Amino acid sequence: MERGLLILVSGASGTGKGTVCKKILSDMPEIFYSISATTRQPRPGEVDGVEYFFITKEEFKTWIAEDKFLEYAEVYGNFYGTPLHKIEERLSRGENVLLEIDTQGALNVMKKVPDGIYIFLLPPSLEELKNRIKNRGTETPETLERRLNAAKAEIEIGKKYQYVVVNDTVDEAVKKIKAIISAELCKTSRNEKIFEDLIG
Amino acid sequence: MERGLLILVSGASGTGKGTVCKKILSDMPEIFYSISATTRQPRPGEVDGVEYFFITKEEFKTWIAEDKFLEYAEVYGNFYGTPLHKIEERLSRGENVLLEIDTQGALNVMKKVPDGIYIFLLPPSLEELKNRIKNRGTETPETLERRLNAAKAEIEIGKKYQYVVVNDTVDEAVKKIKAIISAELCKTSRNEKIFEDLIG
C-alpha cells in the first residue's frame, strides 16, 4: 500500500487559503480534510470525527504530553488542536489528506512530515493584499500597516515551501494545486509497485 | 528571466512516446520541440530550424568534437543528432523545450541537464506491450521474446526518472504530463522573481 499524500496549504493571512481549500475539497471529495480536536461540547448535529474529534480535557492534556499536536490553542476556555497521529492514520491507509494551516504551524509540520507536499499561496500583489485586508473594514491605518508588515514577514517564510501558487483567481489557483497533486502522484518514488508489477 | 523547462519524455519502445508527445505539442503550442541536426539535404518545403537544423558534414564533425550532441547516428551516409546547445539556447531565453528520446539517450541528458524534468512512460501491462509489439506484425515468436526482454531492461531504467506516467490512454497520459509541467512551473526555486516583486 502506497502511503497517501499530505497536502499542506498555507499562506499569509488574507491570501484566501480557506476559499481555495474549500473548492479543492468540493472538486476532489476523495481527499480528506484534516480535522481539529476540541474539548468543547458538540453542537446539535455535529459528529465526532466529522466536524471535530471531540475529546475531554484530560485526553487533550495527554495528547499534548505525547506531542500529538502540530499546534494547539485555548479559546474561551476550550482547547483546539491539529492532531498529527490522526493525519498519520489516514496517510498510512493510503489516503490523501489536505491540511490548511498558518505559516508558523506549517514550519512545525515540515519537521514532522518531511514527505508532505508544501504549497504556499501568494497574493497577486501587495496592493491587492492591502485591498483585501482593507475590505474587511476592521482596520485602522495603523493596524493596516502592521498587518501588511506581518504579511510580508509571512511571505518570506514561503521561500521554504516546495511550491508557490499565486491566488489571482480561485479557479486558477485550484487548478494549479490539483496539477501539483496529480504530478506528485506520478513521482517515481511513489510508484514502486507499478515497476514490481511490470518487471517483478 | 526564469530559465525554461526541459521536459524529457522517454520510455521503452512500444509505449507510445511519439503519439503522446505529438498530442502535447498540439495542445501546448508554446512548447518547443527539440529539433535534430542532420547532414542530409532539405526536401522541398523543409526549412532550416523548423524540421531540422541542416548542417554540413564538416559542421557535424565539429559539433561532435565539441561534445554538442546528446546522441548521434549515421543512417545511409547521413548524420543525425540531438544538439544540446540548441536546447540550451531556448532554455536560457525562458522557453520550455520538449525532448522525446530513447532510454539510453535520456541517461546522457540527465548528466548534462540535471534540472530537466524526466518523465518515463510505462505500458499499462507487459501483456499490453506484447500486444502492441505483435500488432506491428513484423515479429517472429523469437524476436518478440527478445524485444520483450529488451523492454523489461528499459523499464528498469525508468526507476531513475523523477516521474512515471502509465500510458493507458493517450488522453490520460497527456493530462498527467501537462499536470507535471504545470506543477514544475510552481516550484519555489523557479519563482524567485515573484518573491522579489512582493517583498523585495
Quick structural gist:
Two copies of one chain form a homodimer. The first copy, chain A, contains eight helices and nine strands. In chain A, the strands form two sheets. Chain A has a five-stranded parallel β-sheet, sandwiched between helices. In chain A, strands 4-3-6-5 form a four-stranded mixed β-sheet.
Describe the model.
- The structure is a homodimer of 200-residue chains.
- Chain A is an alpha/beta fold and 200 residues long.
- Helix content of chain A is 45%, strand content 20%.
- Chain A has 8 helices and 9 strands.
- In chain A, a hairpin with a 2-residue loop joins strand 5 and strand 6 (78-83).
- In chain A, helix 1 crosses helix 7.
- The first copy, chain A, is globular.
- At the A-B interface, strand 8, helix 6, strand 9, helix 7 and helix 8 of A face strand 8, helix 6, strand 9, helix 7 and helix 8 of B.
